[in-house]
Write a structure and sequence with these properties.
Elements (H helix, E strand, L loop, with lengths): L3 E4 L4 H8 L2 E3 L2 E11 L2 E10 L11 E13 L2 E8 L11 H4 L14 H21 L7 E9 L5 E10 L2 E5 L18 E3 L8
Antiparallel strand pairs: 1-6, 2-3, 3-4, 4-5, 5-6, 7-8, 7-10, 8-9
């Protein structure tokens, strides 16, 4: 599905409720729950199909996951919706949304790629949640599997974590202050360094 643009200053929640809720002779759709993180909203979306329609889902009701990418620029709200059976790249969906979803078989045949993509997406989201819950604490040094290149031109892979409330900053080993911000760092592959291997 492509991008859709609307000129509005309404809150993101209101816009998505209007855009993704409907009822007509073919069935209905509604948002059961949503969670927004920066420019991505994760949604548990209930879809009901009326009996007697030509749809393969005729008479069925299920809840599936939607990922909505959105941004605002010069008064325009632009968004793109990707259903879980299309294999979204964004995998920070919270458990409160995942727990509401119907079994994948409710909307995708096990023999199809759609079933595989939805199943894999849910599994990756669960792994991401587990990893976030086990995130290392303040003062721990970690090494990322893939080095990170910053706008300063530096490329680094090893950092000591500095937590200040909900904020997390990263400093090279031996640094006296937190100098880097790394987005979605919990979802990157990393290992915790032992003290005697930090400078190896």
């Amino acid at each position: 599905m492509g991008w859709t643009g609307l000129y509005t200053d309404r809150p993101t929640r209101e816009i998505l409720l209007d855009e993704l809720t409907f009822a007509d002779e073919t069935g209905s759709a509604r948002i059961v729950k949503m969670s927004t993180k920066l420019h991505t909203t994760y949604i548990a979306w209930e879809r009901s199909y009326a009996a007697g329609t030509e749809s393969m889902y005729a008479g069925k009701t299920f809840i599936m996951g939607l990922v909505v990418l959105h941004r605002r620029k010069q008064g325009e709200f632009v968004y793109k919706t990707v259903s879980e059976d299309m294999g979204p790249c964004e995998t920070a969906c919270p458990a409160v949304i995942l727990d509401l979803l119907s079994p994948v078989e409710a909307f995708a045949d096990p023999a199809t790629s759609a079933h595989e993509w939805a199943t894999n997406w849910r599994a990756v989201c669960r792994l991401a949640i587990e990893k976030r819950n086990k995130a290392p604490g303040d003062g721990v040094t970690i090494r990322f599997k893939e080095p990170i290149r910053f706008t300063t031109g530096e490329t680094l892979d090893t950092f000591t974590i500095h937590k200040r409330g909900r904020k997390v900053r990263f400093a090279p080993p031996g640094g006296t202050y937190s100098s880097y911000c790394i987005s979605n760092w919990q979802e990157r592959d990393y290992e915790i360094c032992e003290k005697d291997t930090v400078l190896a």
